[in-house]
Amino acid sequence: MRKKEGKRKRLLPMLLVGTMAGAVIAGCSQQGENVEGSAGGASAAPAGTAGGSPAAEKALQLNIMLPIFKTNFPKDDSPVAAEIEKRTNTDIHFEWVPNASYTDKFNITLASGKLPDIMYVPDVKSPSFVNAAKSGAFWEIGPYLKDYKNLSQANPVILNNSSVDGKNYGLYRGRPLGRNGVFYRKDWLDAVGLQTPQTIDDFYNMLKAFKEKDPDKNGKDDTYGMVMVKWTGQWASGFDTIKLWFGSPNKWGERDGKLIVDYETPEYLEALKFMKKLYDEKLINQDFAIMDSAKWNDPLVNNQAGVIVDVVDGAARADDKIHAALAAAGKDQPDVHYMDVFGGVKGTDGQVRTLPTSGFAGLLAFPKSSIKNEEELKQILKFMDQLSEPEMQTLLGYGIENTHHTIVDGALVPSKDPALLESEVEGLNQMLSFIPEDKSTKVKQTPLRIKQLEVQKENEQLIVMNPAEPFISDVYTLKGAQLDNIMNDARIKFIVGQIDEAGFKDAIQLWKTSGGDDLSKEMNELFAGSK
Amino acid sequence: MAKHYNTVSSRVFDTANYIVLSVCALAAVLPFIFVISGSFATDAELTQRTVFLIPRTFSLAAYEFIFSTNTIMKSIGVSLFIASFGTLVNLFFTVTMAYPLARRNLMGRNVVLNLVIFSMLFSGGMIPTYLVIRELGMLDSYWALIIPGAISAFNLIIIKNFFQELPPGLEEAARIDGCTELGLLWRIVLPLSKPVLATFALFYAVGHWNDFFTALLYINDPQKWPLQVLLRQIVLLSQAAAGDINAMDPSFVKPPDQSIKMAVIVVGTVPILLVYPFLQKHFAKGVLIGSIKG
Asked: Which of A36, A139, A349, B280 has its C-alpha lying 20 to 30 A from A364's C-alpha?
């Protein structure tokens, strides 16, 4: 009896552990079958779409993975999505991923091997994408583009920029190449009696006048010239534009047939000295190294500073904010523009140079695991080609006429209902390639917005290309962050006066020994190979 | 006793104490107050005044905006469900595993315990775990947020130790009175373990409430986003966009207003803050008792 009792004592707790484990396994496997079953059904469907007469053709099944910038997103069967499906004979399922976390989700989706039909690639140079592309996970679409009306007009510069070793593993999402420039408070410039700057000296004089001549006429010495924001490793807010004015290369430059990094050029040092002068004379904000870029426009709106070197389309956004602030105070003049823009100023050699963007914002890639054969790929490319038609761009960007926007005098007026736009329209334009360009109907253009577009167009002729843009460097992948940090620290320290020219040279030396020399060597090999 | 308070040095000491503690308390509380009052301010005011405690213009616009669609309410619902149901699942599995392991006469007890400790030190990593979840078919299902973390090894060990500390005499007595094993757990052990259960319920619930990463990985359908994914999306939007201008579409995407971000933070934080007072009395007791030697 006693013995039996003891056995039971041990048995029951074990049973408890056992049932618990059993419950877990049972719960999972049941769930598993359900989902597997439905997933299998969905992926089997598109197989039969190839061939057949157009009328009887089954709708093309598409899974599309895109980033979403808002908290609402167009649902699969919402009106605009349904309209796209109708016009292109497709059946689309969207996988929206929050933009802030897109990279994580992208990597894990890539690793899982279960990919959508069209997948947004945020960073073409990221090791996970490059490795996947090189091992053949994505269709190389370069050779196919010529067969399509719109896609064949893709910009060769951007195609090159967005390639992996010269091969295009996806459609780039086009953006204006000449987007960078300067915007400033026009009312201030008028108040201090100056003209739009033409040269670097003019630019300096503008900043100085904004600090010293009381441009807001409040009788107090409470203004400064230019707002700069936090410098990160690769990106030095306005400085990347300003260094080009002095003739420095854009990251990498060709000198005597070899690639050389911009830090080593005397022009770069000239630009740094200029920044130091601005800093010493308090023409830029003294906390630029830590200023949050989300607050970039605030000093302009609050009458503290007058100039920002950034994308030119920031001008209209700042202008809108100033109008909003004045309207709140009851002092708004709706017809006046407080902001103005220009692309750049002449360097010492009389040339105007501007900083290009890479011309694209990520790729739309087509995984081989979900697109089984050429036939399907061609269908999907045809779909992408259709999306580039002007009326489709308008549809994806602004929704359906009289529901999401109205047309007044040929200009588009978006609905005033943000919730409606968010939940049915915004985000769909994430799958537009804008190849050859943005042809959608535009919102009514204010003079400032028209000028912005003109400046962007002019800038395209003035851009300084980075010859190393398409190269994928192993050294940079390994040590890039560290290398960038060395030079970033040195730049900031030089400007605020913690190190002098010799100290900056030491930093370059440190950069070289920490891997910079290897990087230069590798870049030059890639450069030689690309010729 | 009164004399003690009157000496100069003790008064100086007390004053210094008050000052230091007040500063600490303020440092902890002020950011909360700023976020709460910022959520009731207009965006224009937030641009002009960087720090303030009482907004000049009181505005409910931010809250009107975030509740203008049902997105936030829906994700609050999702989060509440996961936090409450998930916590029940956590407690059920943790207790039913901890209780047998607390018995020194359980067969293979040390093997199981070692396995548990092993899992504390080594984990499969993100991608293998993802593959397992996918193969189990739990993608896009709330089970993916509940089952993989159903038992926290650390919490399990503390609860097990707590069970072991209960006097064996109680158990004997109950058994003599004819109590079954399950009855013993239900009628004797659990009622005595209330502080520990309350504490770990809170741990688990806060964990579920704050967890965004598993949801991000395993939930593809944005209809099922819990609150934290949404919160992160709104709060990080402007930062992600500002550094990399290319990622933004110039015409459409603009960062949300500051006041909206703050309102969302308030909405995301307040519900779980409300739980604390009810469990707080068990709190210190629960953790301390549980952690006495094993």
From this structure: A36
